[in-house]
Amino acid sequence: MLTHASENVGTIQPVFGSRYMVSPIPRFELPEEMMSKDAAYQIVHDELLLDGNPRLNLASFVCTWMEPECEKLILEALSKNFIDFDEYPATHDIQDRCVNMIARLFHAPLAQNEQAVGTSTVGSSEAIMLAGLAMKRKWQQKMRQAGKPYDKPNMVAGSNVQVCWEKFARYFEVELRQVNLRDGCYVMDPEEAVKLVDENTILVCAILGSTYTGEFEDVKLLNQLLLENNQKTGWDTPIHVDAASGGFIAPFLYPELEWDFRLPLVRSINVSGHKYGLVYAGVGWVIWRSKAELPEELIFHINYLGAIQPTFTLNFSRGSSHVIAQYYQFIRLGIEGYTLIMKNCQDNAQHLAQKLKETGMFNIISKEIGVPVVTYSLIKKDRKLYFTEHDVADRMRQYGWIIPAYTMAPNLEHMHVLRVVVREDFSNSQVVKFVRDTKKVMDFLNNEESVSSTLCAPTQDQGIHSPLDHGYHSDGHPQVKHEQLHPQINHEQPKKTIKEKWKNFHWRKSTEARVTEARATQPKKIKSSTGGHFGGRVC
Amino acid sequence: MVLSSALPENHYASDSSLHSTFASRYVQDSLPRFRMPEKQIAKEAAYQIISDELMLDGNPRLNLASFVTTWMEPEVDKLILQSLNKNYIDMDEYPITTELQDRCVNMIARLFNAPLKDGEQAVGAGTVGSSEAIMLAGLAFKRKWQNKRKAEGKPYDKPNIVTGANVQVCWEKFARYFEVELKDVKLQEGYYVMDPEKAVELVDENTICVCAILGSTYNGEFEDVKRLNELLEAKNSKTGWDTPIHVDAASGGFIAPFLYPELEWDFRLSCVRSINVSGHKYGLVYAGVGWVVWKSKSDLPEELIFHVNYLGADQPTFTLNFSKGASQIIAQYYQLIRLGFEGYKSIMENCRSNAKVLCDGIRSTGRFDILSKDVGVPVVAFCLKDRSKHDEYEIAENLRRYGWIVPAYTMAPDAQHISLLRVVVREDFSCTLAQRLVNDIHKVLEYLDARPPRLVEAVAAAITHQEPELSSEIVPEGIKISAILNETILGLKSPRRLGSFKTNGVC
């Protein structure tokens, strides 16, 4: 008789010969019994095979490759709790050094060897909430002192901001005033932004590297306009720069560009270590211009080894590997290494944009100066396409590429775009392969379009036309075409049924239906609830 | 033949690949601390430099101060390494990871007896830790309360929350950052958890929730959630309010269901609406994962939820953090299916029995009072019976010399004169290590007994030096000191000794 002895799995019994492989995996309830570790490993590991391959995920800025040496450091530090300053002082010292380096990279006005004000976070989301909270509290204090009401704070940002600003606004009860984008200008217009500022504005947020196109917003102009406004009104509206993606691009590629603490109104900056900071997901940074920008009441003092350590975080216990990995990258690469990598990214992005443009099928929306992303959309010209950017994305997935299609921000919802983020590990040879696969996909879609439009001809009255409809079967009964495509179709069946079947089959897959459906649902789901909307989950 | 002694200028650059790490120029320079270096350095060198510097950190395994897991099976390490480059929030690209999270939420909710039908998806979220979990739960209570007050046309600008003074610092953070007043029930000597009666007295119509702790930070004791529930139910029915309970089960959430299944503290109680638990404590995963579960959908205001649409399915999300690694979630699922109820139960039983071994060992020295209870999270909290010569801080410092990290803390406000040592017994703290620790405590006590009180010693020396006329009070050889002077000196506290649990960041 065959028995499954659980003790022997992995040692004697092969994992795939064990009972675990034939019983359903627990999904709702903690299982009663133990499972051998080999089997547990194999089950979890194998199921994860169905996840996308992070390296081929061109949707995200988040770093997906690091040197094996750094992975070793990460693994060694897995069991260290970052918040245990007392037990792991060296780790904490490393965080302080990273803060110092980033603050100086952003030109914070610091004396030599002066400790900068900032902290590491889990990501830009936490960083933004901390920065927003500091500005909110500062504004509250000011208003309280002036004897004015302080219950209606607001903030101003472009509608291209990341969803976490919306979260901040909703969770911390701040009104979010958005500057809408318009055709041709996909970033916040500083003039419009300053118009929205009033006495209750706790901050204006400028984005260095817009989520949509990677474009840098004009922080310098914003600073100038806001300075004038402040002078006129006597307010002191500060700027926060959300440099999540651009913070490690601008200092290396465009050192002359003034967007950071060189501008007097920029009081805090956040940057994602896990984007172009080149560390795996799980580290962000927030830097304040000076101590004065951080209200004392928000700081919790932790006492370690006799020294008082101020902390300002939303999270408490967390791993310390990412902070260590960040320091590794800083000292390993230096300014030289970062510059080389960013230059490569930029070159590859330009190359990709060029190649895509050459296909003659795409508009390039992203700018040359900015974060190395390529945002593009289909050229529609005057003919109506039967597929959208979403279909291109879908088909690209079959070749392994993950490039989601998005609708643009509010006010530009008619625009659909594809976006490729060029990370350091996206090499030139991959660019070539990507363009090749794009061409294949476009050939397929163009071909499918002609077929499906032919076959869907009877739906002409629903407003669907194709140039191919005319001439071939103006009578609206394209049976000849059917037989050519499917010679095995039973000729004795009533023609109409075949047609219906074929139509239904194709119609279900047809993009027009999906587009109609998407359009019907989208207006309800604004930015926060996105069917493939940029703001929803882009990171 | 003349041997040139001068090295060519590009000596290091020319053959740097040949150099062993410690022969390279990188180990000559001090590490950059304030500015990003101009030049790159070899990856081996960068690795070695950082890794060497981290040697000075304490050894996590010997850190007995923290609940946070420091050991996992090598198979999990492998899974973690494989998923390091996965971003948890990319639900569209990594749908399986998202599903594993949902499964964990389901299992935990059912473990806490959430009223769920077969196959029904539980309401909850994976977080970075209990801190985020608590803020999310607190935010949900606050918003629910605000909505209710708004609907009733009453003011909604003065919310408060009732807890014991023994709560973790993150409740204070929540209160301060989200503008909620924190009303804490003071502790008293001999009773180190929140008194339910007093807590309910503090409840008013502006109370968004009462927080009960399952596994107090100080001594691991469980608060009496059942009694709190009874009292609160009575008060609610009298006043017509609907004050809910949140259970902070950060440390006890994975203990109680396995060791004390009869204990009613979870969703079996009517007022308990949400529970948080740290996956990285007795959930047995490395630092970086926590969970929050709600009793039902109606306890989570819709306006706080952000919807993400992935692969055609609607995925509601409620988090403070956005991008983060996916590995901890995967590791948690591994532990849940690998260990099952049986595995968790036997690990927790081991922890309890090792805690008992340690507790007995410490008691047998005859020098300590044990402050922890038998029922509770497996920690051993103890303080000196006689503090006239040496205090707990000196014991802690001396234990460090043997490699142990056993910090000493002062109790919460109102019991601040009590300081204590606390050892957290984790799964990787075996009986052998427990016995060794007892031995080392013996040695430390012997060592300290042989020495005069350190502070007394120093102050006495200083006094004899500066104020010769006082030296008559001090007998030089044995450094005996007059009782009055002794008391004065022991009364002096160094800043370090003021550190209480909260300001020491216990986790």
TrEMBL record, chain A:
It is an enzyme of class 4 (lyase). Residues 469-495, 513-539 are annotated as: Disordered. Gene3D superfamilies: 3.90.1150.160, 4.10.280.50, Type I PLP-dependent aspartate aminotransferase-like (Major domain) (3.40.640.10). Keywords: Decarboxylase, Lyase, Pyridoxal phosphate. GO terms for cellular component: cytosol. Transmembrane segments: none annotated. Its cofactor is pyridoxal 5'-phosphate. The keyword Lyase applies. One of its GO terms (molecular function) is glutamate decarboxylase activity. InterPro entries: Glutamate_decarboxylase, PyrdxlP-dep_de-COase, PyrdxlP-dep_Trfase, PyrdxlP-dep_Trfase_major. It catalyses: L-glutamate + H(+) = 4-aminobutanoate + CO2. One of its GO terms (biological process) is L-glutamate catabolic process. The modification N6-(pyridoxal phosphate)lysine is found at residue 275. Its EC number is 4.1.1.15. The keyword Lyase applies. Residues 469-485 have a biased composition (Basic and acidic residues). Belongs to the group II decarboxylase family. This is Glutamate decarboxylase. It comes from Ceratopteris richardii. The lineage of its organism: Eukaryota, Viridiplantae, Streptophyta, Embryophyta, Tracheophyta.
From TrEMBL, chain B:
It comes from Ceratopteris richardii. This is Glutamate decarboxylase. Its EC number is 4.1.1.15. The modification N6-(pyridoxal phosphate)lysine is found at residue 281. Keywords: Decarboxylase, Lyase, Pyridoxal phosphate. Signal peptide: none annotated. One of its GO terms (biological process) is L-glutamate catabolic process. The keyword Methyltransferase does not apply. It catalyses: L-glutamate + H(+) = 4-aminobutanoate + CO2. GO terms for molecular function: glutamate decarboxylase activity; pyridoxal phosphate binding. Pfam families: Pyridoxal_deC. Its cofactor is pyridoxal 5'-phosphate. GO terms for cellular component: cytosol. It comes from the Eukaryota.
